[in-house]
Amino acid sequence: MKSMPPSCEDCFQEFKIALEDLQIFVKQARLRELSESRKRELIANFEVAHELALKVIKSYLKRCGKGPFTGSRDLTVEAFHADLIDDGKAWLDMVIDRIQYNPIYELDKHPEFFENIVKKYTRLLDRFEDTMDKILA
User: Fold this and answer.
1) Cα(first)–Cα(last) distance of the chain, in Å?
2) N or C: which end of the chain has fewer CB within 10 A?
3) How buried is residue 122: exposed, middle or buried, by Cβ count under 10 Å (0-12/13-18/19+)?
4) pTM of the predicted structure, to 2 decimals
């Protein structure tokens, strides 16, 4: 028997939990230096939260009759056009940073990626949460 895909609201609840976990790491990062292993944990938590945000976006847009999408860039652009996110360029930067951080590439993006998460990307995810709270209320 086939199971039903999670609803947009279910995906959003998962995202909110992941964002709360990320915010704990970000607060620690702002208060003091984190060890390299804790920085990697923060990055891993960010990647989970970002993936779940994309899952919420995809689920919501599918509900609206849009899609399919070929990847996170297309999904991000459509989310911007649908007013789910308010800074399309910064969200695309987030996608690109995640791709460049991938260990397959030889670029050492770790310090820059970490700083972007703490200073920019978490705020973008916070604003996305606020937007979706209003839409799904």
Assistant:
1) 32
2) N
3) buried
4) 0.91
